């Protein structure tokens, strides 16, 4: 691997080999070399040296910032300790005056240790190489060294083999082959190490290049698959993840195996890497090592995942500072992903080139025919590009320089002919990025080709991703270049901004091609009727392009759209449509998840903003694509149902079908329909039941559900149960339903939500109604967790029992929540400034209270309890979770059914709620009344409560 200048290493400042050897010799003189007292003294001394050396390496890392330097310093420290222990064991403990040929060995470093680099928490991989079979002497020396290293607290991987065994195992095991490839002599007999190296090159490496390359590429692909197959996860694995150190290792292994080199710098002379690419390699390696060493020092262990809870500290340790629009941690993580992208570019081009170069054909006539069939072929309609084994390549070296538009044409042709990219083509593109200038960006043909790729009926995401990986997309659209590798420091977004945009285009393409009908039935149904297909694709591609700026990204994004759309060839009307979609891309999602969709003003306000059916359809599809591309598990069927409800209600309004027609008549009709559905009941029972329900229930709940509830209530009455629950699952919506019948109580919503939190259930929605006899009929919808219906039903019944136990006073919510969430991941790395706003303009009948704060277990229970303390009747509550942040909306009235208009009372409400939101610890206050819930006649809850959440709140 590349070696920094030796004068920068300052190895003697970490540990001086002569000083350690002298100390151990003194111990041997004072205690006798092989005594227990001597061993304890040796252990104490090497522990002291190791701790001091590592602390010095940490200080030097903070001082010079050299990641590779730090890794080499720690490796040097380990070398000195290992060599000193070998010398002590062989000289003072198991000294042999006239050793036989079998009483010899070589201590060899392998793995990462063999490469000459160690992170603070890395394993120490040792190979003890013997000339023949084991002897008592070799076993004793190896055992003594290993036990001291283990007693030092080091993780040591080891093997003891003779040369024949090493060669035999290397032939059959690729992991052992790679370990020996990286073997580095530490101490012992050098001729034995040289013999192993010579035999390895001749008997293992020679003629097996293609086999090794294929195995390493397959190993890399499998590793990427396990890590999520993207380098843009916001909590990346620095060692094993895509674009991490292991990818650089793979590049070096292949180069060393195939080209027989010892240093990456030799690849420049071989023409494999340019000097610029070598510098990029070394810079990326140094940065990744700096991050990894900081992580290990900070956590005190071999932590390889760059998790949220350490990202801020690492950013501070590396000297990043806040800038307008981006925090220090976001700037650090953007740098990380840019480096990961560079690593991906280098390894992809290098490994693909070797793979192509090593493809062999069979000998004889079949080989001749195979070579003839695989000769490059002309692509019809162009002289600048050729097809080579299903890959597009350049016809000659000057194709891009002769006409820079060919940079864009390369990707366009790959799209329309569905070709892979030849590694030489990508390498030349990457080396020709300077040709992408203002003239090319404004070229009409180049922009026409780009729009064609973006709106392609084939695989637009794949082509755009290749353009992004090659650096073309960020150069051709500088506004996109600003968000390449940009992450947002929160738990909601799983990917970098550019990765999110490409995944959004992928979802849209799937809907366009009819592949998402099951997941997104309404969007799939509407898409063929959308007239401005191109504008929708452009809006999806641009919707987050202004992230990371000081001003709101939706507003800034609309400005970017007005600038770029004419360049892409869109008309003024299309441009304004795209700008509107970008500016409003969050509106439909937020209204659906945080507003009461049964409140007519919600629909009228949203409809006035949308204005046309075409914009409504496009905004729905954009919202679906945006949520779906945020990350795994963010989208669910319930969100789809909310969006569909908002769409259908708004469509009625925009098409003239929405009206306030006689709620009284509609209620009477609904009551009559329910009575007819209960025709098998006695007349007395039917009349009594129909008197139980108020207008909100009859208008909001589907008839089928009303019939189910009727049977449930009748069964509970017959059994004389005060508390009763029933459960069922909704697989399509990924929702499980728990229906509760209970005496009403002003704190009932707080108690039920607290019980759900205590049971570990994540609330997606809750319909809460009160009957005329003072009972509550609540339907709690929780996010599904288990794939099997029977398992999920058992889980739901358990949660139902928890709710019953809490209501009956058998369980204490704060204690259960604390026990349930003990050891779970906290949101401490994040800060969300608590906000509370009160509005009387969002509803004609209710005051709307909106809260924003950091999520924590039991939060909804605490908030609703405070609202009850304030004598507020909660008519509708919407709890939406975005990663670590919750946005809670409550529709409330006072106890006489009026809005909250008094300013002093509003100020008091805000202050009380902010006190709850600002609470930092996870311990919940005891807010539940002891014993059984209150009797009939308590404060009545009206209408429907829709509490929506993704995580326990």
Largest sheet strand order: 3-2-1-4
Distance between the termini: 50 Å
Structural class: alpha+beta
Q: Work out the strand percent.
A: 5-15%
| CATH homologous superfamily classification of the domain at 6-200 | Beta Polymerase, domain 2
- Helical fraction equals 55-70%
Largest sheet: 4 strands, mixed
User: What is the fold named in CATH at topology level of the domain at 6-200?
Assistant: Beta Polymerase, domain 2
Overall number of strands: 16
Average pLDDT rating: 85
Coarse morphology: globular
Q: According to CATH, what is the class of the domain at 6-200? A: Alpha Beta
CATH architecture of the domain at 6-200: 2-Layer Sandwich
**Regions with little confidence, pLDDT below 50 for 5+ residues:** 1-6, 360-373, 823-827, 920-953
State Rg: 34 Å
What's the number of helices? 43
Family: Belongs to the GlnD family.
EC number: 2.7.7.59, 3.1.4.-
Domain ACT: 737-819, 848-927
Organism: Hoeflea phototrophica (strain DSM 17068 / NCIMB 14078 / DFL-43)
What does it look like?
- The chain is of the alpha+beta class and 953 residues long.
- Among the domains are: 6-200, Beta Polymerase, domain 2 (2-Layer Sandwich), CATH 3.30.460.10; 211-357, Nucleotidyltransferases  domain 2 (Four Helix Bundle (Hemerythrin (Met), subunit A)), CATH 1.20.120; 477-654, Hypothetical protein af1432, CATH 1.10.3210.
- The protein is 55% helix and 11% strand.
- A four-stranded mixed β-sheet has the order 3-2-1-4, sandwiched between helices. Strands 5-6-7-8 form a four-stranded mixed β-sheet.
- A hairpin with a 6-residue loop joins strand 5 and strand 6.
- Helix 19 packs parallel to helix 22 (444-454) and helix 32 (600-610) crosses helix 34.
- The longest helix is centred in the middle third of the chain and has 30 residues, at 328-357.
- The protein is globular, with a radius of gyration of 34 Å.
- The model is unreliable at 1-6, 360-373, 823-827 and 920-953 (pLDDT under 50).
């Amino acid at each position: 691997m590349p070696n920094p200048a030796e004068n920068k290493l300052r190895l003697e400042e970490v540990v001086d080999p002569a000083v350690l050897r002298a100390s151990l010799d003194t111990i041997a003189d004072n205690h006798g070399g092989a005594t227990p007292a001597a061993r304890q003294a040796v252990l104490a001394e090497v522990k002291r040296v190791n701790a001091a050396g590592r602390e010095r390496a940490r200080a030097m890392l903070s001082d010079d910032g050299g990641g590779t330097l730090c890794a080499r310093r720690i490796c040097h420290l380990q070398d000195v300790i290992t060599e000193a222990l070998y010398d002590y064991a062989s000289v003072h403990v198991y000294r042999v005056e006239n050793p036989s040929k079998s009483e010899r060995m070589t201590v060899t470093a392998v793995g990462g240790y063999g490469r000459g680099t160690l992170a603070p928490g890395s394993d120490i991989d040792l190979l003890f190489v013997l000339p023949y079979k084991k002897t008592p002497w070799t076993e004793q020396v190896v055992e003594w060294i290993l036990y001291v290293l283990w007693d030092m607290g080091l993780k040591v991987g080891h093997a003891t083999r003779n040369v024949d065994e090493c060669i035999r195992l290397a032939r059959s095991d690729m992991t052992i082959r790679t370990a020996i490839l990286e073997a580095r002599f530490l101490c012992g007999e050098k001729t034995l190490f040289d013999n192993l190296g010579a035999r390895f090159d001749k008997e293992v490496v020679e003629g097996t290049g293609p086999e090794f390359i294929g195995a390493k590429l397959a190993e890399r692909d499998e590793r990427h698959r396990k890590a999520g197959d993207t380098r843009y996860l916001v909590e990346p694995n620095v060692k094993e993840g895509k674009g991490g150190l292991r990818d650089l290792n793979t590049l070096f292994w292949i180069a060393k195996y195939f080209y027989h080199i010892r240093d990456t710098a030799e690849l420049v002379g071989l023409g494999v890497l340019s000097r610029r690419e070598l510098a990029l390699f070394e810079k990326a390696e140094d940065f990744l090592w700096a991050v990894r060493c900081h992580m290990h020092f900070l956590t005190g262990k071999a932590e390889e995942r760059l998790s949220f809870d350490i990202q801020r500290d690492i950013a501070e340790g590396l000297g990043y500072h806040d800038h307008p629009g981006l925090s220090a941690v976001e700037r650090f993580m953007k740098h990380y992903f840019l480096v990961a992208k560079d690593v991906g570019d280098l390894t992809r081009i290098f490994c693909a080139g070797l793979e192509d170069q090593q493809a062999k054909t069979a000998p004889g006539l079949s080989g001749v025919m195979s070579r003839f069939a695989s000769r490059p072929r002309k692509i019809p309609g162009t002289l600048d590009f050729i097809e080579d084994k299903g890959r597009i390549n350049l016809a000659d070296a000057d194709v891009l320089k002769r006409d820079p538009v060919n940079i864009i044409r390369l990707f366009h042709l790959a799209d329309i002919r569905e070709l892979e990219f030849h590694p030489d083509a990508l390498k030349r593109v990457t080396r020709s990025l300077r040709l992408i200038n203002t003239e090319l960006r404004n070229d009409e043909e180049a922009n026409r080709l780009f729009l064609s790729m973006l709106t392609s009926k084939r695989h637009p995401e794949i082509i755009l991703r290749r353009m992004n990986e090659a650096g073309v997309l960020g150069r051709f659209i500088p506004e996109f270049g600003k968000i390449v590798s940009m992450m947002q420091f929160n738990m909601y977004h799983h990917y970098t901004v550019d990765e999110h945009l490409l995944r959004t285009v992928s979802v849209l393409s799937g809907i366009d091609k009819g592949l998402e009908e099951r997941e997104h039935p309404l969007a799939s149904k509407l898409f063929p009727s959308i007239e401005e297909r191109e504008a929708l694709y452009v809006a999806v591609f641009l919707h987050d392009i202004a992230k990371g700026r000081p001003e709101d990204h939706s507003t800034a994004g609309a400005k970017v759209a007005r600038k770029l759309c004419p360049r892409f060839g869109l008309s003024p009307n299309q441009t304004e449509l795209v700008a509107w979609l970008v500016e409003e891309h969050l509106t439909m999602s937020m209204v659906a998840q945080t507003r009461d969709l049964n409140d007519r003003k919600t629909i009228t306000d949203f409809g006035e903003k949308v204005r046309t059916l075409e914009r409504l359809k496009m905004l729905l599809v954009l919202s679906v694509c945006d949520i779906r591309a945020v990350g795994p598990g963010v989208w669910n069927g319930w969100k789809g149902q909310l969006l569909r409800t908002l769409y259908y209600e708004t469509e009625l309004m925009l098409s003239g079908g929405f009206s306030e027609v006689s709620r009284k008549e509609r209620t009477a009709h609904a009551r009559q329909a329910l009575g007819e559905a209960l025709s098998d009941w006695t007349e007395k029972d039917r009349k009594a039941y129909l008197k139980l329900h108020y207008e909100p229930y009859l208008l909001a709940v589907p008839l089928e559900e009303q019939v189910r509830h009727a049977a449930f209530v009748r069964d509970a009455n017959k059994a004389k149960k005060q508390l009763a629950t029933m459960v069922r699952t909704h697989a399509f919506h990924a929702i499980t339903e728990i229906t509760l019948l209970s005496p009403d109580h002003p704190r009932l919503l707080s108690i039920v939500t607290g019980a759900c939190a205590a049971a570990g259930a994540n609330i997606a929605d809750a319909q809460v109604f009160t009957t005329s006899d003072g009972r509550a009929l609540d339907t709690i919808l929780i996010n599904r967790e288990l794939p099997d219906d029977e398992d999920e039903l058992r889980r739901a019944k358990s949660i139902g029992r928890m709710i019953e136990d809490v209501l009956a006073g058998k369980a204490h919510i704060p204690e259960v929540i604390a026990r349930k969430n003990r050891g779970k991941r906290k949101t401490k790395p994040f800060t969300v400034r608590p906000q509370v706003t009160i509005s009387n303009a969002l509803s004609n009948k209710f005051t709307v209270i909106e809260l924003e704060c950091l999520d924590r277990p039991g939060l909804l229970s605490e908030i609703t309890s405070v609202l009850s303390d304030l004598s507020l009747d909660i008519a509708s509550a919407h709890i939406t979770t975005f990663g670590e942040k919750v946005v809670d909306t409550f529709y409330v009235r006072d106890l006489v059914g009026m809005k909250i208009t008094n300013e002093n009372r509003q100020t008091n409400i805000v202050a009380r709620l902010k006190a709850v939101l600002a609470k930092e610890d996870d311990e919940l206050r005891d807010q539940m009344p002891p014993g059984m819930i209150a009797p009939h006649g308590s404060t009545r809850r009206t209408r429907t409560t829709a509490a929506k959440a993704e995580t326990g709140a």
